[in-house]
Amino acid sequence: MKRQTKDKLVFWLFLSPALISFIIVVIVPFFMGIYYSMTDWQAVPGIPVNWVGLGNYRSMFSDIKFQYSLFRTFTFTLISVITINLVALIFAFLVTREIKFRNFFRAGFFIPNLIGGLVLGYIWQFIFKSVVPQIGGSLGIDFIENLLILANPDLTLIGLITAYTWQYAGYIMMIYVAALLNVPQELLEASEIDGANSWHKFKSITMPMIAQAFTITSFLTLVTSFKQYDIIVALTNGGPTDIFKGEVVNSTEMLAVHIYNVAFKYNNMAEGQARAVIFFLILSVVSIAQVYNNKKKEIEM
Amino acid sequence: MKKGYVLLLMSLVLTISLLAGCTTSSNEEDMSVVIYQNKVEIGEQLTAFAKQYEEATGNKIIVKTTGGDTPYQDSLKAEFQSDREPDIFVIEGMGGYNTWNSKIIEFTDDEWIDLTDLEFTVDGKVYGFPVSVEAWGLAYNKDLLDKAGVDPATLTSQDAYREAFEKIDSMKEELGIDSVVAMAAGPDMRWVTGLHNFNGYLSAGLPYGDRTVLDKLNNGEVDMQRLTEYADWVELLFEYADETVLITGNYDSQVGQFATGKSVFIHQGNWIDPWFVQNGVDFPMGFAPHASVKGEHNAIFIGAPSFYVINKDSKNIEAAKDFLNYMATSEEGHNYMVNEAKMVPAFNNVTLKPTTPLSANVTEWMAKENGSYTWLQNDMPDGFGMGTLGPIYESYAKGDLDKEGFIEQIAKAIEALK
Amino acid sequence: MITKKRVSKLLLGLITVVLFLIVLFPFFIVIINSAKSSLEIITNPIALPARWGQLIDNIANIWTNPSINYASSVYASTIITVLSLLFISVFSAMAAWVLVRTKTKLSSFIFLIFISGLVIPFQVVMFPLVSLFRIIGNNLNIQLLRSYQGMIFAYIGFGAPLAVFMFHGFIKSIPYELEEAALIDGCSKPRIFFSIIMPILKPIFVTICILNAIWIWNDFLLPSLILGIGQPLQTIPLAISAFAGSFVKQWDLIMTAALMAAAPIIIGFLFGQKHIIKGMVSGSIK
């Protein structure tokens, strides 16, 4: 065999298992999805599919529930990104210092990440519904005892973010730990000899490393928060209700949940698919802008 | 050199085998009848009964049970997307029929049809086998009612209820209760409000089988008079409910409140019986009449919640029919329905009596003349009851909406069905 | 100066311990409530259980529960997780390697397609995916829905983009001279990959496997569509959802089920903790 043909053979042989799986599982359904979003597709076998153009998209934007879901998803994502990164950073600082049982603490902070969103949602539902009032009762604080966290839209959002931060901060911590450990020790020592104080050291040496890590962590937290599904389903199931533009809406029905509900609960697959396409567009724009922006900042620093 | 190729070849073979792995579903499944059902609580018992049937007849029945957060219709759709369609599956009324009518057969001369009044029919044609009879309403704790000096037989109108609730509420401490009614309207409990309670608007006070209000609803027409009367009833229930249970409670906390004697009434159905059995609760109880709208009432909501239907593309239609007949006509079938699965059977040839308190009470109501109101909640459009109406009840319970707002939102939701 | 440093060190240590306890508090709640009866939970969810033996009863209850079917669900989750990890990492490493070492427009384009997979959210492909799997099942007679092979195949597809991306970055940093020398020695390309490159990739392998293991073991939405809830073949999260989502929401058993669902992966983590943390730290920044 000629060398070149052989190389080509190896190229395709090595590439095909991953590429074929990826194309069948992601790429083909992606284009099917875009097509279906412009039809009256019902996903019941045997029922023909008719073209409806942009009809599904038009009804989406006039749907108050969708507008609200979009708004709440943005709020949830924004706050989650901040809290998760903040908590993770604090954890990372604490476990990169000279303390005993450092690895033990790292493992402890990381462990919630091993719990699946569904199981975690049930655990926190129990905490908010039963444990918190009981603690209030034991402490004799009526306010806490009678606090119905999962009945108030804003408190529920905070609860959701708490549960999610609890799960995800340990993972993001690991990335910060890696960044902090990458700070060259010699540099720190050298600057200490130069008489730099801790703040100065932090600002000029540690910060840039964190900024670099932040490009990754903020991207990860942003994308995963935006796509959150499991925790919400198990913790709040979309509730409690809120009133938005005079209509009753589900306050924690974030986009991922909303898409699923439109498709299955209201039995409207095509409309659910159209919302999923918009979901994809928003996610791409936001994440690309975010990475671009951070990269720019990173260079400036 | 060789080692590399061997490894490469192996991984390729693995991919191919992965893709081609199991090319056909097992033959055993094709020969047998697959029943795909949605009652988690009877999954075990039904499987055991299927075994009995297999021993008696040699026909194999495979029971698949689904439950959980995904509504049955979703799971069923996914099931039909898979490669082995079930032979028997469940529809929950008109909504299910509309989705699946092209896939199901008509029952014509099956034995069981003459034994029941609750078969699922469309235009006089029989399509569904009633799985069981269920009923809901306001169940009461007899001991507490006696203590409060209220006779449940007098609770026949909204006024009588209001009077009784006021009285009981004033005796809270004496009775040791948190609230008069255990009612739930939270996110987990939309089936209680958006389906069961709302059914009062659709059928309370009307003759059995009357669908006029429902038909109007499906056309986007509101019966304002009825809706206003009905809203009074909802107000009454919410006003005398425990706030925590009402707003955030789940099934367990609602039933738990009633079972621990912390409420006198509960808005639930006879399916809560197993909870009492498991937790050793044994006070006497029964259903009081349901006064969803103005006027005198002496009935509760009785119906078949779901029906077994047969897939018309099934290769085993005869075997599937035979299984259903066996369930309705044989002693083993009766024993399974009544004693094992703890259901109230829909067939009048069954002589066994339920032993659990509410189910036993349901059979009494069934025997009464005009003792039942129709179940119409499953004949509303998909997602309307739990998805659209449920949140409105929740907002009302929380106080985000007042009664006028509640009426207005419900009316708006109905009008949107046009 | 020294005392000040010591005080601040002590203080930080204290904060760490407090945070640590807060983070672990939910686990504490799960454990104590797994050892209660449902009535005991309603009365007081933060008291210690009256009788720890109840834990055994509850575990036995979950173990024999037909909708959870614990043993077979753990078995299914294990098979699916292990095989998916193996295929994702090996296939992606192979693909990444040829993509790095072949400098053509085509290979850059293919790499770009993989990267695009990173921004395609699962939600936009999930409904059509199920349809496609059904179409494949009906026309090519390959059963993908309700089966191991379909589930694992889907994980390879969804796992490939990130893994290819990570391997790609790592392989770029491996000097080509290494391979060149072997080529001159007459080594074939596949051989070079399996005997030279693969060993170098070990640390990133570990990282990718950990990330994917956590994802796949706990994943809910994808298996709920591919495998379905309440099917004979179900993973642990599906089993939990089938159980916890039914009408009868008994917190004692849900807590026990949560405990038993998390146990295998937490035990696995504690065993391999050192390597895992090292792998996470070294791999995450690359």
TrEMBL record, chain A:
Residues 70-290 form the ABC transmembrane type-1 domain. Coiled coil: none annotated. Belongs to the binding-protein-dependent transport system permease family. It is found in: Cell membrane. The chain crosses the membrane at residues 12-36, 70-95, 107-127, 165-184, 205-226, 274-292. One of its GO terms (biological process) is transmembrane transport. The keyword Transmembrane applies. It comes from Soehngenia longivitae. It is a multi-pass membrane protein. InterPro entries: ABC_transporter_permease, MetI-like, MetI-like_sf. The keyword Cell membrane applies. It holds the Pfam family BPD_transp_1. One of its GO terms (cellular component) is plasma membrane. Keywords: Cell membrane, Membrane, Transmembrane, Transmembrane helix, Transport. This is Sugar ABC transporter permease.
UniProtKB/TrEMBL annotation, chain B:
InterPro entries: SBP. Residues 1-20 form the signal peptide. GO terms for biological process: maltodextrin transmembrane transport; maltose transport. Keywords: Signal, Transport. GO terms for molecular function: maltose binding. It comes from the Bacteria. GO terms for cellular component: ATP-binding cassette (ABC) transporter complex, substrate-binding subunit-containing. It holds the Pfam family SBP_bac_1. Gene3D superfamilies: Periplasmic binding protein-like II. Belongs to the bacterial solute-binding protein 1 family. This is Carbohydrate ABC transporter substrate-binding protein.
From TrEMBL, chain C:
The chain crosses the membrane at residues 12-32, 74-100, 109-136, 148-171, 192-217, 253-272. It is found in: Cell membrane. Its main location: membrane. Signal peptide: none annotated. Residues 74-272 form the ABC transmembrane type-1 domain. It is a multi-pass membrane protein. SUPFAM superfamilies: MetI-like. The keyword Transmembrane helix applies. One of its GO terms (cellular component) is plasma membrane. Coiled coil: none annotated. GO terms for biological process: transmembrane transport. Keywords: Cell membrane, Membrane, Transmembrane, Transmembrane helix, Transport. CDD domains: TM_PBP2. Belongs to the binding-protein-dependent transport system permease family. This is Carbohydrate ABC transporter permease. It comes from Soehngenia longivitae.
